[in-house]
Amino acid sequence: MTQEAGGRLPSGPAGPGLYGECLFRPQDEGEAARVDLGALVYDATTFARLQQLGVGPGMRCLDVGAGTGTVARQLLREAGVAEVVAVDRDIRFLAAEPVAGLTALEADASGPGFSPGLFDLVHARFLLMHLPSPARMVERLAALLVPGGVLVLSDAVDLTTEGAPRTPYTTAMRAMWRGLRETIGTDVSWVPSCPRLMVAAGLEAVAAEIHVPPLVPGSPMSRFWAGTWDRARAAMVGTGLVDEAGIDEAKQCLESPQFAGLSPGMLTAWGRRAVPPTTPS
Ligand SMILES: C[S@@+](CC[C@H](N)C(=O)[O-])C[C@H]1O[C@@H](n2cnc3c(N)ncnc32)[C@H](O)[C@@H]1O
């Protein structure tokens, strides 16, 4: 097996492919189930944060890169928001289960014509890490807020890639991040600076938190990583950091009661658009 010494996050040139085209294609069997495993892990954390930020009845919400729509549906069902516009480059999973108040909008959020209106909440989870120019995307999404509206962005952080002992699991994770970088341009190295990007975009009351879910055999998180490695197998092997047998060994680790690895987690950052001061009449 070929391996590299350090465990730095990949910072080389981004591959030219797109999420949903050369990897994680929505038409591939089981892709909705894979995305739902991630949602199962993170929905409670996301929803608790949205509620703490005051998301509730009457609000107009935008969920960008909405995937299967679990956050959009929970906002309507449990927070009682007025409307959710759920945007994705491919809306087949959103359209499959229509719900009152949910508008599925097929659009490229990074494209020049993206202008879905103004919202009280703009949310995107595990989207910006797959797109070029996160700073420009933060600016663009911040510009979709009404005064007082809140932008909430979640992306992956990985505490195992730097300085962690080399194991089959950490080797597979490093190969995955590098493989995603080299094929579809995925980059999580900027994620810890997301709060700073929000301040630079003019947002106020910016803060952030991290949730790292436990890796337990058979858990949705373990199954999500095993399924993600299966889909990204060629990209991972193509990095030269791992081979097929190494990926299988890492998958076996995920299922072992002896395994004690740290999963990548989710950094959520939020900030509000300022309310202009009222001028005395
Ligand atoms: C990793 S999934 C996350 C799905 C969902 N936000 C969640 O957390 O469960 C990323 C989603 O973003 C969508 N996506 C990727 N690039 C996009 C773009 N340029 N514009 C809109 N959606 C995009 C993909 O189709 C996919 O549904």
Automatic annotation (TrEMBL):
Transmembrane segments: none annotated. SUPFAM superfamilies: S-adenosyl-L-methionine-dependent methyltransferases. CDD domains: AdoMet_MTases (cd02440). The keyword Transferase applies. One of its GO terms (biological process) is methylation. InterPro entries: SAM-dependent_MTases_sf. One of its GO terms (molecular function) is methyltransferase activity. This is Methyltransferase domain-containing protein. It comes from Streptomyces broussonetiae.
